[in-house]
Specification:
The structure is a homodimer of 467-residue chains. With 467 residues, chain A is an alpha+beta fold. Chain A is built from 16 helices and 18 strands. In chain A, a hairpin with a 4-residue loop joins β17 and β18. At the A-B interface, β9, β11, α8, α10 and α15 of A face β9, β11, α8, α10 and α15 of B.
């Protein structure tokens, strides 16, 4: 908490915000604003100048215009579940919170689209689509509380990336308020639309640094008619990796292809008692979906491939409730690990699928080298790993080793053609490594775009890169 | 042909290009450069200053640096099959032709990716994927001769948009040469990658105005195991439209859902003699694909829905060769129409699927109003219509009526929440209408991005908008 409590420099701005939005929509008292000083990322926090709630795009526009007038940075946030510090306030920032803009505005079953305000909860959107027999595939771990605007701003992933893609793949249109307060609509309900540059996709994943997303138009799919769930245990990580390669080589794209390593298996079993074998080196949770015959055929082929490549056992769920139980093992991984030590740092490196087994070995070697407890789970199908460092932020010596390990993991990822972040964003956490991944020309191009869209550098400044 | 033959102003630049690329890679003689003065768009042509061929990104970079030094515009092109004038040279431009950069560089079956130079022919890429049991879905009508770089620059569509999306959905990475000659790589082989702004998608569909695409990394899918093809005839267009709505409402997403109107049916039958009924008001060509049981089940359900909604007959192909024959009816639509009059102007408006029947009626009324021959076919599933104006560019009075009809079609499209271009791009043809579709704020944002990435306005200037 490096920022002093609100004082003279912000007084005029706060008064103007109160006049514009109503006094009750502007929080300034310490006890009110402290909860908005952090997100889901360990160790990062910063007190804002004030927290304001907008109810529509016009109010967002008013906030941006006032912030510009007073040269105050604006950090937009939804529920604050981010995992890279993207919504941690910058110094003396106005936090613009959109959770009160939470309406679903339209569900168009003829065109398979759903339009919602940015503050709508992702689970609510999923449920609204489901009620109409439709399917919104992106399922970030936080979806029960995270907002769709935050998902879009971070381009959130989830467990279904391999077959169904990520949030970006479902964004057809956006309403965005630009740094100067102008409101624009990008995209349309048309499945094909090439009228002008695709600026919609520029805002997806821009982490609040280019504009404020106030509305989203999402693409929906028909609900898959059937699903099959399998859990396969392996005594060697390489066997699990070979199995995954064999599944893809067999031209099967499962909708879920998740894995847990040995440490995670033990934690999860201790937490959930679902009956995982404590001697397994790796567990794969695999789901197929679609036409009933397709889902079943694929599940049978996958079962064969698992056994052929050395699975010590394969369970295929006989019912939806059994499937839910098997999926619990994966869904509870993070919560189970988070119980062990005071601080849980969730990594998010991603490599091409073919590099995944090697990358898991790299992480194990790095844990040994720095004497750290690192458990790994993640999305095997799309190469997205979550090495989870179990540590204690009060232990300075250990935190130093964590930083070294973190840097080593990044280096190993880049050496394997991977990315420093698959689904959590750059924010503050990955900022130091971005230039190395992108190279100078691409990195400079990011900054060029930022400077042209936000010339005063007031929209979530200091995230992704320093200007 | 408003440009004088190469003369003093370009001499120094041409000499520099010859030194840099080799004299045989620089064309300046009239008979050599005239073929590069137009693309697939009717009525548009302009002679370039010179045509140069690059063999790699370093040569592209050299060309851009020289062009900048000499303040010469650069118009990049592949095979020149564009349908919006996007690769028609601007005055005194250097045409940078990439057809000699046509290699497939890597087919990675473990990660389901293919990397190719920008000049590689799309059909060659499709065939290379097919040979490995993989599938590159985008199939623009020009794919036998168009280049992948051109497809990416225009974000080309095709017949499979409804289920499989468009070119953009398969671009994982790009090598791009920027206006200052710097070479950057955008994207990666990772299925999930949120490291920095998504600038890759900014270049997809940017029509050569932001940089020169020199390499593409494409996503591939497993080949669908089976396909079913149906041809349904309707005596009323509304019945065809209702059938399409019923198919979507039944949660079926066909891979192809094409239609022909009465005029097109007659032309196609006259051209192909495949046995289409001349009294039909509309024909739907519908294909399902995927697991054999899924493709068959869906085809049977679709057949029922067609009959239920008034199809006068439905043919389901019993073999691959019969399917190919049925598909011929749709694939030959443009060629069949192009035989009728000297000039064929292919429109490309797109509306939300639910507006399609109304839009087809609008086009019929507009044809009547302006006394023009307009046949319509297109992609019913994704709302992408190709009203085709059969005319003669030598007839000034008729061409004036064509322009009025063109403007009326655009107005009707926008009134229905559609887009002025679904898959052909803005180029020169749709430039006058873009601001109306986007609104001032979005339109100005396009220009802002252009000015920041191409400050001297030398990359395909005058396309999409005038600065």
């Amino acid at each position: 908490m490096n920022t002093p409590a609100p004082s003279a420099p912000g007084t005029a701005l706060i008064a103007a915000l109160q006049t514009s939005l109503g006094a009750d929509q502007v929080l300034t008292a310490s006890e009110d604003i402290i909860p908005y000083g952090f997100d889901g990322t360990a160790t990062l926090k910063q007190r804002p100048l004030a927290v304001v709630f907008a109810r529509n795009a016009a109010q967002v526009s008013a906030v941006l215009k006032l912030a510009r007038l007073h040269h105050a940075p604006v950090v937009t946030r939804g529920s604050g579940t981010g995992l890279s510090g993207g919504s941690v306030p910058s110094t003396a920032a106005i936090v613009l919170c959109l959770v009160k803009m939470d309406r679903i505005l339209e569900l168009d079953t003829a065109n398979l689209t759903l339009r919602a305000e940015a503050g709508a909860i992702t689970q609510t959107i999923f449920d609204a689509a489901s009620a109409a027999g439709l399917f919104y595939p992106p399922d970030p771990g936080s979806m029960k509380i995270s907002t769709i605007g935050g998902n879009v701003a971070e381009n959130s992933g989830g467990l279904r990336g391999l077959k169904y893609g990520v949030t970006r793949d479902y964004v057809m249109g956006l309403e965005v308020v630009l740094a100067d307060g102008s409101i624009c609509w990008l995209g349309s309900k048309c499945v094909k639309d090439v009228a002008g540059y695709n600026l919609r996709d520029l805002f997806v994943g821009s982490e609040g640094t280019l504009g404020v997303i106030t509305q989203v138009l999402l693409k929906l799919l028909p609900q898959p008619a059937a699903r099959q769930t399998l859990l396969a245990m392996f005594s060697r990580m390489d066997s699990a990796a070979e199995t995954v390669s064999a599944i893809i080589a067999a031209k099967i794209i499962p909708c879920t292809l998740e894995f847990l390593d040995r440490k995670t298996i033990r934690c999860v079993e201790d937490f959930t008692h679902v009956g995982l074998p404590l001697d397994a080196e790796a567990i794969l949770l695999i789901e197929t979906d679609g036409h009933p015959a397709a889902a079943t055929d694929e599940a049978l082929k996958i079962e064969d491939l698992c056994r052929l490549h050395g699975a010590t056992s394969v369970k295929r769920a006989a019912s939806a409730s059994e499937a839910a139980l098997l999926a619990t093992a994966r869904r509870s991984a993070f919560s189970a690990l988070a119980r062990l030590r005071p601080t849980t740092i969730l990594e998010d490196v991603t490599v091409p699928r073919s590099e995944l087994a090697g990358m898991i070995r790299d992480v194990e070697a790095i844990a040994l080298k720095h004497d750290l407890n690192i458990a790994t789970f993640g999305h095997f199908g799309d190469g997205n790993l979550h090495p989870t460092i179990l540590t204690d932020e009060r232990n300075t010596a250990e935190m130093h080793r964590v930083e070294l390990a973190f840097a080593d993991i990044v280096s190993a990822t880049l050496a394997r053609g991977g990315t420093i972040t698959g689904e959590h964003g750059v924010g503050l956490a990955k900022k130091p490594f971005l230039r190395r991944q992108l190279g100078d020309a691409s990195y400079d191009l990011l900054k060029l775009v930022k400077r042209s869209l936000d010339p005063d550098n007031l929209l979530n400044p200091g995230k992704i890169f320093d200007l």
